Structures are given as structure tokens and as C-alpha cells.
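B., you asked whether I could sanity-check this one before it goes into the benchmark set. Here's the sequence:
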Amino acid sequence: MDTMRKEFVVKSIDAAPDGAPYVIVSLSSAKELKEGIQPQSPFGPKVMGFSNMNDMMKDLNKMFSGMGGMPGGVTSIKMDMHEYKQMNLSVGDKVFLELSKAESSGV
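And here's what the prediction gave me:
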């Protein structure tokens, strides 16, 4: 099984925008912080104007597709309240994310 582990620092913890019982934990790469790179909001400082719904969807798709490998980007995780309380996270905490690729069962 392939595994990757990355180090992050908790940048912010925000309540769910829809009032649901979860939080959004935003993480910045610890490596970028050590190198002095300032993380930016994934939405950036740009203000976009849209003339119709199709243009808005195209621009949003471009914006979201460009977020993945953007230097200085922010990684966000949605956690339910039980997970959040169990982890006892605070802004500035160092955390690790571990990704493992599931074995394919051939189905």
C-alpha cells in the first residue's frame, strides 16, 4: 500500500458556513512556513464579475482546479464536532496528514 505523510500547521478553524455541526480546519504546509512563504486564501484576492450563470460556473471550475498544486495554498478539512473536540485542535498546532491508497479488489 502506498502511503504519503505531510506536515501542516493549523492556520484557522471556522464554523460551518451553513450552521451545520462541523468545522472547517484550514492547514498551511509546514515546509512553506519554514521557507517564509505566506499562505494565501484558496479564493485569492480576486473579485470576479459574472454576466451569466454559465460564465460563473466556468470561472469557478477554473479557480477550483487551479487550487490543488498552487504554492502557498491552503488545505482545508471538514471535521464533525465530535472529531474536532476529540482532536482538541488549536490554531498554530502542528499536524500530520497521512494518505494511503486503498488496494484495488479487482471489482
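One thing to flag: Residues 1-39+74-107 form a domain with the OB fold (Dihydrolipoamide Acetyltransferase, E2P) fold (CATH 2.40.50). Otherwise nothing jumped out at me.
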